[in-house]
Amino acid sequence: MLAVTAHDLVPPGPVAVLANPTAGRGRHRGLLPRLLERLGGAGRPVELLRARTPEEAEAACHAAVAGGAGALVAVGGDGTVHRALQAVAGTAVPFGPVPAGTGNDFAVDTGFPADPLAAVEVIADALRAGRTRPVDLARLTTPDGGDRWYGAVLAAGFDAIVNERANRMRWPRGPRRYDLAILVELARLRPRRYRLRLDGAEQEVDAVLVAVGNAASYGGGMRICPDADPHDGLLDVVVGGRFDRRTLMRVKPRIYQGTHVTHPLVRSYRARTVELDAEGITTYVDGERAFDLPVRVSAVPAAVRLLR
Q: pTM for the whole thing?
């Protein structure tokens, strides 16, 4: 936990910028020069990080932080933000997400404008004023030493299974691959037996949907954990029980408004630590592939400082 206030000075050093040109299917690619210009207007040198793969992007962020960057800015969607968070979490280096992807849940849920130019103005103004605001993150660990931070939501149910199916498919390309993966996994739908330990209290549940949220949304605005607050030091756990195919397809559209939590088969919990296990499940965090279950998730208050 960082002992910070809402108006700490931003450390000296250049502003490192991680930009994903393919985020949002490239629709904001032409904005990058304008975004960099507006960041430069805050009076600090701006350094664009070079990376060709997500792994290189994460390594470049770590190198920038270790090399004395005064701030890190990520231009892209939740996947780009996720890579950057690994470098700034638990450090004094503040962070600014510029939403330019298909899913921008962390940026929007932590108060940034959905428009990239408006968001970069907020970040530049915070840099000029030396202003940061602390926000919680979730820390994901495994029994064998795996360790990741995430800002939005961990998925460990049907949506994670669909993502895993889509990532294994070589055809078709684009969004149709995900749609086909949904159809395949709907045909195979069955509740799984999960072991949940919430702040040490253990239970077993049969479920189709399981999510652990530091923030409310995933998947581009689906409010799976609608009451999650990334400032309260707690994780929200939403469990959708023994849904059949028809019921699941009726309930899923309600996730965009967060009203699914009123369904009789949905249970919500709140805890500081969540231990989760089930057979054959690979988790996804911030839309990125993470670890096979079992995992432990811990709420870490004020784990990152946002330029807001």
A: 0.92
